[in-house]
Amino acid sequence: MENPFSSLQSQNPISLAQQSVENVHRAVKQAQSHPSEETVQNARNALEKAERSIAQAEGRMNQEPIDRAKESLETDRGFLTEVENQLNN
């Protein structure tokens, strides 16, 4: 049964983008601690989903959380690249 008191905020594009970025962060941390083709691919998939979520949230009323999400995504992208480089060496 659905919760009739669930927050509408959890369904807005900005919060969905933020959640996607958090998923990327977790996936990248997993790839860092357990580097493998699978964990890297999972992180890449999460990254692509977050990019789509951010694109959908672009131009909403408050750009600041989107800008922070983009910054976080770029940081995690750098960490993921480091893991990929380790696997390829």
Could you describe the 3D structure shown?
This protein has 89 residues and is an all-alpha fold. 75% of the residues lie in helices and 0% in strands. The chain contains three helices and no strands. α1 packs antiparallel against α2 (37-57) and α2 (37-57) packs antiparallel against α3 (64-88). The longest helix is centred in the C-terminal third of the chain and has 25 residues, at 64-88. It is elongated and about 45 Å long. The model is unreliable at 1-6 (pLDDT under 50).
List the helices and strands and how they pair.
Blueprint: H1 13-33, H2 37-57, H3 64-88
Helix pairs in contact: 1-2, 1-3, 2-3
What descriptors fit this protein?
single chain, 89 residues, mainly alpha, 3 helices, 75% helix, 0% strand, elongated, disordered N terminus
